[in-house]
Amino acid sequence: MALTIYGHWVSQPARACLWLMRLNDKAFNFEKVEPLLGGTRTPEYKSLFPTGKAPGLVDGDFKLSEGTAIATYMCEKENWTKWLGGECLQSRALVNSYLSSHHTTSRNITMKVFHPAMMGVLNQETPFTEELRDKAGKVMERENKKFADTWLPGLGSRGYGGFVAGLHEPTIADLFAYCEFAQAKQMGIVGGKWDKRVEEWMDRVQRIEHHDDVHRSLFKLRDVYLANEEKRKQKWEMKVFEAMDFDEEGGLERDGVETLLKGKRILDAYDGIETSYVTL
User: What are the GST N-terminal domain coordinates in residue numbering (predicted)?
Assistant: First the structure.
C-alpha cells in the first residue's frame, strides 16, 4: 500500500519531507491541505492527526504528524541511513540534536518572517509594514548568526564538512534547515547581510537533486508576493509625489517627504524617488 502524505508544497516541513521522498524515489500519494484556510483543524483531519499539525503521514494503519518525526521514521523504516547521518553514532546524534532544536531556532524564520509577509499578501488588513520588515530583518540576522556559529562553525576549515554539524554529506537536518533559511532569500522578503557561512551552505544544499522541482510552488508564490510588493510601491509613489513640495529651483523640500516617509529606512525601501536633494 502506498504511503499518503498530507500537506502543502509551500509548507516548510512538508517540503522537506517531500524532498526526502523524491530523493529516494519513494512512491506516495499526496493530499493537499490548506493550513491557512483551516484545513488542519477540520474534524476529518483531526480524526487522522489529533495534534492538528501538518505534514501528516498515513502508512497503512499507522498515522504520524510533525515533519521531523515523519522524516526520521521514513529513514529508519526504509534504511535511508545516509540521511540520518550514516552509520556513525555521533554523527546521527548531531543530526538529532539539530532536529530537536529546530522548532525553537530556525523555525522562527517561518513564524516571524515568512508568515507576516504572506499575511500581507493574503489579507490587506494585516499589511507587511516597514516596522514588521525591520523586525523580520533582525530575526534573520539573529538566526543567521546563531545557525552559523552553532552548526557551521568550522566551514571552510580543513577536514570540516560543508553540511550541518560539519558532516561531509547532507542529511535531513540540512533539508529542514534549508527550507527555512532559503525561503526568505528566494522570496526577497528581507534584505541585509547574510552570514557568508550560511550563504555557502545554502549554495551547496541548493545543488541537491530535485531542488527546483520541490520548490516550484514557492517560486510561484514568490511571483505573487513580488507583484504585491510592486503594487505597494506604486501606492507609495502616488503618496510621495502628492506630498512633495518643490522650491523655485526644482529642489525637493525636506519637510514634506520627511513627514510622510518617517525616516531613511522607508526612503531607502522606496527606490523610485530621486533622493539627491534629501539628507535624512
Answer: 1-82
Is residue 26 assigned to a domain?
Answer: yes
Whole-angstrom distance, CA of residue 179 vs CA of residue 166: 19
- Whether residues 11 and 67 share a domain: the answer is yes
On whether residue 154 sits in a domain, the answer given is yes
DSSP state of 9: T
- Assess contact for 180 and 106: CB atoms under 8 A: yes
Q: Are 36 and 127 part of one and the same domain?
A: no
- 8 Å CB contact between 214 and 176: no
In whole angstroms, give the CA distance from residue 273 to residue 280: 14
Residue 198 in grid coordinates = 550560511
Compute mean pLDDT per 10 residues along the chain, 280 residues long, and list them: 90 95 97 89 96 96 97 98 97 97 87 81 73 86 92 79 94 96 82 84 96 88 75 53 40 38 34 28
Domain boundary (209, 231, 247) is at 209
Q: Which residues contact 179 (CB under 8 A, 6 or more apart)?
A: 12, 13, 15, 16, 19
Q: Which domain holds residue 253?
A: 216-269
Of 49, 55, 1, 54, the closest CA to residue 28 belongs to 1
> Does the predicted TM-score (pTM) go above 0.90?
no
Residue 249 lies in a domain: yes
Cell 524532498 found at = 19
Among 209, 242, 261, give the residue marking a domain's end: 209
Do 239 and 248 meet the contact criterion of CB atoms below 8 Å apart? no
pLDDT score at 103: 85
Tell the residue number behind the cell numbers 533582525, with chain if given.
Answer: 138
Specify the number of domains making up the chain.
3
